[in-house]
Design a protein that fits this description.
101 residues; mainly beta; Immunoglobulin-like; four-stranded antiparallel β-sheet; 10 strands; Ig_I-set; phosphoprotein
């Protein structure tokens, strides 16, 4: 706001969050049945954008079988005690960017 006494002018600043990009992509994981499978990827920066993990086309959430972690720019998925039914494509999506293994 600029106030000259008899006149006043006001303006506002609006910011949009820049999109994060994936700078460290997912890598394929081979493990034995009954062990954990760990997938990681790293973003260009911390972001409030919605990030999502998928097994095939099924969105994953943290529960007793899947652990999803975010530590700064590093996003991790741990599939606990994998079975043969867990074989398939894992993907990570944030904004318009995605990576698969």
């Amino acid at each position: 706001t600029c106030d000259t006494g008899d006149r006043q002018s006001t303006a506002a600043v609006h910011l949009k969050e820049a999109a994060a990009t994936i700078v460290e992509r997912l890598k394929d994981v081979a493990t034995f049945e009954g062990q954990d499978a760990v997938f990681e990827c790293r973003l260009s920066r911390e972001t409030a954008q919605e990030a999502q993990w998928f097994l095939g086309d099924v969105p994953l959430q943290s529960n007793e079988m899947n652990e999803i972690r975010v530590q700064g720019t590093r996003h991790s998925l741990i599939l606990r005690k994998v079975t043969l039914e867990d074989c398939g494509s894992i993907s990570f999506r944030v904004g318009q960017h995605s990576s698969a293994a």
